[in-house]
Amino acid sequence: MKKYIWSLSVGVMVLMIGAFLLGRFAFPEGGLAKLPAPELAEGERGQLGIDKNINEATIDNYLNRPDAVYRDVRMLKDPGNYEAIGGDSYLSGFVDGFEVVPLPYIVNVTGLPEAVGDTYTGKTLFTNVDGKYVANYEESMDILESLFPKDKVIFLMCGGGGYSGMLKNMLVALGWDATKIYDVGGYWFYDGDNKVEVKRELADGTAVYDFYKVPYHEIDFDSLTKASR
Q1: pLDDT, tens digit (0-9, with 9 covering 90-100), for 157-176
Q2: Domain residue spans of the chain
């Protein structure tokens, strides 16, 4: 009996050590699954900056990580005519866990498809001047670092993938680690299990938008100090 108990104990210890080593191998980041390195998708999606591995089709597998922040960079209502390219100018829904920080309030937007026309042209934290990002307010960089922490993995989403690609380029140009930023594409193409619907239709067919559902980061430009040039 003692020999049996000893053998059983050894077997249990072997299983425990094996499970520990397997866990260390599969989840090397303190219990979190290791993320694939950012890699551009092929074709037009890659030109927008959308990731090959973590995107609309797979983002559900990477939600709720304590080492990451999730940012949807659309406006609640964009002046651009995104319906002209099959999208929605309104933020009609979002992926649960993402918080909204509109790109057009962070930096002036350029390079939109001609059919979209102009987007927001008001105050911004930064101005893109030939690829150089100039702070418009003394607090601009502090706000940017607060919204997009450098010590976190950053998942970016927008409507079609363009805004989030623009923001990734900006962050990298300003010193963020490109290997920790993922452009996961556009909500318009998301069909996962974590949709939060903002748009709904009334009985008469009128569309309304329940923006109270949106976790939204507002930038109060009136409270900021204009940068000295």
Answers
A1: 999 999 999 999 999 999 99
A2: 1-34, 35-223
Q: Which of 52, 51, 63 is nearest to 94 (CA)?
A: 63
Instruction: Tell me how long the chain is.
Output: 229
Angle 224-215-198 (CA atoms, 0-180°, nearest 5)? 125
Q: Which residue has the tokens 């000893």?
A: 6
**DSSP per residue over 115-176, as a string?**
GG-----S--SEEEETTEEEESBTTHHHHHHHHS-TTSEEEEEESSSHHHHHHHHHHHHTT-
Edge-to-edge strand list for the sheet holding 153-158: 99-100, 68-72, 153-158, 181-186
Tokens of residue 163, six digits: 């805004």
Residue 71's nearest CA partner among 214, 203, 211 is 214
CA-to-CA distance for 25 and 124, rounded, in angstroms? 44
Give the CATH superfamily of 35-223: Rhodanese-like domain (3.40.250.10)
Q: Which of 43-47, 140-144, 179-183 has the lowest mean pLDDT?
A: 43-47
d(C-alpha 198, C-alpha 91), whole Å: 7
Half-sphere exposure at residue 100, Cβ-oriented, CA atoms within 13 angstroms: 24
